[in-house]
Amino acid sequence: MRKRGFICILAVLILAMAGCSKKQTGKDKITEGTRYLYYLNNAENQLVAEEYEVTSAENDTQGLVGEYLEALMTIAPQNRSYKKAVPESVVITQVGAIENEQLTLSFNSEYKKLSVTQEILCRAAIVKTLCQVEDVTYVSFLVDGQPLKDSLDKPIGFMTAEDFIDNTGGETKFEQNAIVTLYFSDKTGKQLVETRVKIRYDGAVPIEQLVLEQLVKGPGSIAGVDENEVFATIPEGTRLSKVTVKDGICYVDFNEVFLKKRAEISDEIAIYSVVDSLIEIPAVNKVQITVNGEAVPVFGDGSPLDIPFERNLDIVRKEKQQ
After folding, report:
1. What is the domain count for the chain?
2. Distance CA 268, CA 189 (A)
3. Which of 125, 231, 232, 284 could serve as a FRET partner for 141 with CA atoms 20 to 30 Å apart?
4. Partners of 98 in the beta sheet?
């Protein structure tokens, strides 16, 4: 069964970034009109900038792009504590022609091996550097010939310098806004209600964790949800101890409060609220639930809980056709 997945993905990088020249420190503000190359700080968790003097003619757009890319790849920062944002293993295999202020760069497969923080900072450094070229407003990435995708397996598409917001003096924080699908109970306690929820997350917190935390909070914390139609499925006081994904299986561990099933809902609703919500995530195909690190043979009124669960849409309420 095909996943509907996530919609409305908007990537936003909030990062502490500052200009740096021979007389500036990494915490000074960027000066308008000055050209920069973007690097990583010593901790490799923040972008910093150093002034750069271009040699290509200002009207040689393609030449400027090539010069900036070569500079990012080869020129060491003046500040010895800074590091190049583009690792040596990452190779730009092709630079597309600029059309309608759009530029596409192709990378080798090594790009896929970057960590979340490495990747977003590398991408930010390249995009912000290239968007200093007057005729370049939008930049997209291809990796092994395929569009670069985010952690939700959605194509990122064209990016602008404004997608990477400067917040001088703050911490680097990559945040994405996404609309996810959660499943709560209807008033009968025998059917699940599909509920779309907008959440914000960063690379430091797995999306699976945020989905489960929202389920634990219940629909009452979601703006615009009718609490007379949609009801919580997880007992109040339940705590998520751990969540991991391996080989398509999401392993979820709750504390013992999870076993105190809400009396007004069926076993199926309690279980598949978790299962169906998680399987909306592209990387998840099955869900295994444990309590305090242990498998639980019997749950609620006698349902097995010690098996991997697959999606069950048969208990999802069908919306009436208009």
Report:
1. 2
2. 9
3. 284
4. none
Is residue 83 domain-shared with residue 198, that is, in the same domain?
no
Which pTM value belongs to this model?
0.56
Report which of 151, 99, 124, 100 is spatially closest to residue 41, judged by C-alpha positions.
Answer: 124
Tracing tokens 């978790």 back to the chain, one arrives at: 274
CA 133 vs CA 31, 94, 183, 193: distances in Å:
16, 18, 47, 49
Cβ pair 311, 279 in contact under 8 A: yes
Taking only the tens place, the pLDDT of each residue in 265-301 is 999 999 999 999 999 988 899 999 999 999 999 999 9
CB 130 within 8 A of CB 185: no
pLDDT single digits (tens) 56-113: 998 999 999 999 999 999 999 999 999 999 999 999 999 999 999 999 999 999 999 9
- State whether 155 and 187 are in the same domain: no
The single-letter code of the amino acid at 172 is T
Q: Which residue has the tokens 């009968």?
A: 188
Q: What range does the domain containing 230 cover?
A: 175-304
Record the tokens describing residue 217, joined without a space: 């909070």
Looking at residue 191, what DSSP letter applies? S
Dist CA 25 CA 190 (whole Å)? 61
Structure tokens that stand for 136 in this block? 């370049």
Q: Which amino acid is it at 87?
A: P
What is the Cα–Cα distance from 140 to 104, expressed in whole angstroms? Answer: 5
Look at residues 257, 285, 259, 272 and name the one whose alpha carbon lies nearest to residue 184.
272
Question: What is the DSSP-derived secondary structure letter of residue 296?
Answer: -
